[in-house]
Amino acid sequence: MSRFRWWLAVAVVLVAGLIWIEGLIERRPAPRPAPRPSRLAPARPQPPRPAPAAPSPDYGPLRERLRAYLATRPARYSVYFKDLTSGASFGIDEYRPVHAASTVKVPIVLYLNTLVAEGKASWDTRLTYRAADHYQTGAGILHMVAADGDTYSLRVLANLAITISDNVATRMLLEYLGRENVAAFMRRLGGTTVYPGGENLSTARDMAIYVEAVLDFAKKNPALGERLLDDLAHSIYHVGLPGELPPSVRVAHKEGDVTGVSDDVGVVFAKRPFIFTVLSDGQADPLAGFKEIARLTRIAYDYQNQLPR
């Protein structure tokens, strides 16, 4: 092959190679432009779905145990129970009006605590004792030691009304607060049997409402609420709800009795805390009535203890 033809062949091969490479370049997909930032707000992460609520325990068996026990007792009882873990509740003759005795001191002192929390009252305010208006025998100490003109702070009176159920202290507080104001407060909480006809009557259901209101108050006002619960847990009258429970179990409660009547209302801080209110009448012996209340509470306590937390 002449040198001319050889160079011609080489040139043809080079041109063909360039055409083939150019074809490859044209067939390669063009690079995608960088995405522009979205003008839309980024999607918010979805909150985790709440775990399904644990089913409420079956309190039918407990209710029947209490009913069966009460059927063997000569006195008449009204009972209300509420499990504070699940919110499940039940009653036995819970709307029957019964003399509230000193259990009414719970909403009275709760109302005073509420006024203090709202800045409408001060623990340092002192009230003057007047025998003609305030003297009352029965529970307490002031009827034995107070003299006309003596003054007592609201804090002392509230403490005495709960821890030793002082009747004079309660009368002084009621005068200061106003019975109608206290009654209106009880109705706002949900009470339906509030001093009907001027009588100190209530129901097991209403008293449970007031006990739960104390717990709600303590959540919102820890310092004041804990002090009130502490007073309720350290009453000198401690034979009703806590009577058959282990001493280590805290019970914030208020007992009350008059002729033929034994009442106790409160909260038992068991492993599954529960509100328990028992009002009874037809009692031949009030102390025997409190022993029956202790037995009822023990039945409820044992039932709670066999349930999961």
What does it look like?
The chain has 309 residues and is α+β, with helices and mostly antiparallel strands. The protein has one domain (60-305): DD-peptidase/beta-lactamase superfamily (Beta-lactamase, 3-Layer(aba) Sandwich), CATH 3.40.710.10. The protein is 45% helix and 15% strand. It is built from eleven helices and nine strands. The protein has helices at residues 3-27, 60-70, 105-117, 131-134, 142-145, 154-163, 167-177, 179-189, 204-220, 222-233, 286-305, and strands at residues 76-83, 89-92, 98-99, 126-128, 151-153, 201-202, 251-258, 261-268, 274-281. The chain has a five-stranded antiparallel sheet with strand order 2-1-9-8-7, sandwiched between helices. It has a two-stranded antiparallel sheet with strand order 3-6. A two-stranded antiparallel ribbon has the order 4-5. Helix 3 packs across helix 7 and helix 9 (204-220) crosses helix 10. The longest helix has 25 residues, at 3-27. The protein starts with a helix and ends with a helix.
